[in-house]
Amino acid sequence: GRGIGKNSKGNVKIREFGKKSFVSDDVVVVKKEKKKDELKKSGDRDNKHNQESRNSEKSEKQQANKRSRESERREDNYNYNVPWLRSHIRVRIISKELKSGRLYLKKGEVVDVVGPTMCDISMDESGELIQGVDQDLLETALPRRGGPVLVLYGRHKGVYGNLVDRDLDRETGVVRDADTHELVNVKLEQIAEYIGDPSYLGY
Asked: Which InterPro entries match (predicted)?
């Protein structure tokens, strides 16, 4: 249009300047802090979830280990109330009443298991056959170190091998499996000298 007023210089062009958007530094800072808070809360939720997950897994593992230990203790704490007799193991008579006490502390071989807790025994010294002897009147007999033994009960039941070591104070022993050569720890009451053919046991 045409210039208006003093010192006008003919036609002039009118330019419209776009409105410049303006955001104060304070607003930017607030937005950044808000974003940080959101990220922090999200991170806290993730960390809490991960921690809960780890705690849950840890608790499950502890429970499983506890059950395993309790199971092992139950297996190893068997006593003479459970059947442990096997043919071809050596035993010692601990009853003073059996045969009027003349066999007290004598050793013999179990030649036949006639019931869950009943057996026939061939005495070592005389060869006499004693029939129908209850296991409560017996205890297991052990060989010297290096001698053959059979694990009668517990989690290593059925293992046949050699007696590597024994601790009479702790009443524990170490047996080397004849097949795998693995060393297993047992209580002395769990094992007996085995004088039969290992093939009877699958060895």
From this structure: Spp2-like (IPR045166)
